[in-house]
Structure formats: C-alpha cells, structure tokens
Amino acid sequence: MPASPSRLRVAVVGTGGIVTGAHLAALRAQSDRAELIAAVDIDAGRLAAFQEAAGPGVQGFSDLSAMLDTARPDLVLIGTPPSLHREQTIAALKSGAWVLCEKPLCLSLAEYDEIAAAEDAAPGFASVLFQHRYGSGAVHARRLISGGELGDPLVAHCQTTWYRDRAYYAVPWRGRWATEGGGPTMGHGIHQFDLLLHLLGDWSEVRAMAGRLVHDVESEDVSSALIRFEHGAMATVVNSVLSPDEVSRIRIDCADATVELTHLYGHQNDSWTYTPRPGLADDDPRVTQWRTPAADVPSSHAAQLGALLDAYERGVRPPGSGPDARRTLEFAAALYKSAFSGRPVHAGEITPGDPYYTSMHGDHPDWAPKEQQ
Question: In what residue span(s) does the GFO/IDH/MocA-like oxidoreductase domain sit (predicted)?
Fold first, then answer.
C-alpha cells in the first residue's frame, strides 16, 4: 500500500519492546502526518509479529541497507541496542532520511561528532529520544524558568533511583561499555539529567563519583555528581539501579519558588508542583499562573514525534539534535571522567586526544574492559 503523499514515510529499525510499544503508539497518535511503511529486524519471528501488530502495508526487511534502498523512507526510527545506533543513524542520514533514535544516540563524543559530520553532508537531521522534554509540564516549567518568572535558579536536585535485578543484566549487551556505553548514567538517569539541562541551560563544571556496588558488570551501577551551571546555580545528580523505592525526581529552587517534578517513567501536569517562597501568597496571580499550564500533554514518544514532524514541515533542525543533544552526552562523559579521575571536569575540555572522547570509561584501569588492558 503506497503512503499518502501528504504524510511522511516512516521506517522502524528494531522491533523489540520499545518499538512495538512506544514507537508504534506514537505513530498511531500521529497517523494523520506519518505513515509506517517498513520495518527492519534480523529476527524473522519478531519482525513478523511486529508486522501483524502494525497492520497491513508494512514491508519487512532483515537488512537496513536493503530497506533504505527499496522503501526510501523520509524518517527512520531506531530502537536497536545502543552499540548499533551510530552506524544505523549514519546510514539513514546518507540515504536522505531524518532520524529519531532511542537514547543514547551513540556511545561517545567521538561517535557523536561522526554523526554530526554525516548530518553536515546530508539533507536530514538526527534527533535523540528524550521524551520527558515534551510533556506540557516540562514545556511550561522551561518557559517560566528561562523567562525569569520564578526568579533566578539557585539550587537543584536530579534523582533517578531505580531498581534492576540480576535478571535484567542477563541480556548480553547490558552492563557492558562496548554495547551499552555505561551503566545507569547512560542508560537510565540520562533522561532526567537531560531534562535538568533542558530546564537550566549550559553546565560549566562537574565533580562526580561512581561505584559498582552490587552488580557484576563492567560499568557502574550507581553514580552521583555535583554540577555548577554557567549562571551560577548548583545541582546534585544521582543515577542508581539499586533503589527498591523507585522514583524519578527533579527539584529546582528559584528565588521566588520551588518547582518539583516527581514521577517514574513519564509525567503529566499533576506530576509538577510549585511552592512559592515565604511571603508570596498562594492566591497571588503569579502563583496561579505557575500552576496552570494551558494544556495537559503527557511526556511521551508521541509528543516528541509531533515536535519532530513540526520541524520537518518547516524544514528546520528538530529539537533534541545538534549541539543541544551533544551537551547531554558531554555531561555524561564529564561525569565519568570526573568519577574515574577524581578531579573536576569543565565543559569543553573533553576533545580529540582525551581518552574520554572515544569511550566513557576513558581506558581507566579500574573500569575499562579487561580485554582492552
């Protein structure tokens, strides 16, 4: 079945749980603007099950290059394990497609810069999925903070305290630097600290620690960092897969109010609270406006896909791409470098020639895979 000329032709790469669930739901929510035409997976049974779930008209392929040559999609959604993201993203860009890829977009700053170079030589853009930015509560909070309506940001806390058991790490690519890129810093907490950076802007300095306290894996199972932002605010970030009472939380104390987000895997407007400073009454018109976003849009893949489609229609760089997305990956690299080196790391210092530019473990003898030592 040919795609409607008024809708983008979309292909998915990987047909595991995240694609079958979140991506397929997002495409259905945006079905007036996007049409799924193809899917790629090396597992024939999984691919067939996905095609049945997706409905008629979705061609199946076992090879990405064959799909790109045959289907010629406008947009490629990538939901494969992280070690495949760089190669698959570059291939899609070279074919002329735009890309929306699951986090992390790649495993190092060096890989990110390869993708940026491919973008420069192609008509499309590559975005990374950070869906928590796109709920109406996050959009509202960012507008208030960046516009100064809450006063200067001063102190912040960012918490991703989740729980993953040993069975979780039985999946061969998890917990390994070469295939996952890191532990909860890269694979779990990255959603929350991306949102923190989205709300507060550029960071200038990181001091961090990391540990391998429970799980027998290459990467960390907990990390913690102190951050200084360019405008002077200071924050803590905790990333854990050791926490039985699971929660995702961001709290930002501004001069006139505290804004707090508490959720687990997604948020709505009622996940956000605004507490005015002492002396500012609850019925003050400013406080009422803080607590009432114009709409209630949950954070989701559908919300981010909608923002990307808006950018595609305007022919402009989509959110979550370019230097904006690189900043989040650079923060992760800086956290690892600070944790493993025991010293502060400043924005911009991890450049070609720095071991943390090419891998998150930085070839540190206590953390690099044994076969590399």
Answer: 140-259
The model carries a pTM of 0.95
Place of tokens 């929510």: 29
Angle among Cα 33, 191, 173 to the nearest 5 degrees reads 95
8-131 homologous superfamily: NAD(P)-binding Rossmann-like Domain (3.40.50.720)
- Name the nearest CA neighbour of 56 among 81, 35, 85, 70: 35
For the domain covering 133-302+328-346, report its CATH number. 3.30.360.10
Domain boundaries, the chain: 8-131, 133-302+328-346
194: enclosing H helix or E strand:
helix 190-200
Q: What does the block give as tokens for 203?
A: 């960071």
Half-sphere exposure of 252 (CA within 13 A, CB side): 26
> How confident is the model over 153-199, as pLDDT tens digits?
999 999 999 999 999 999 999 999 999 999 999 999 999 999 999 99
CA distance 25 to 31: 10
Please name every residue paired with 207 in a beta bridge, in sequence order, or none if there are none: 226
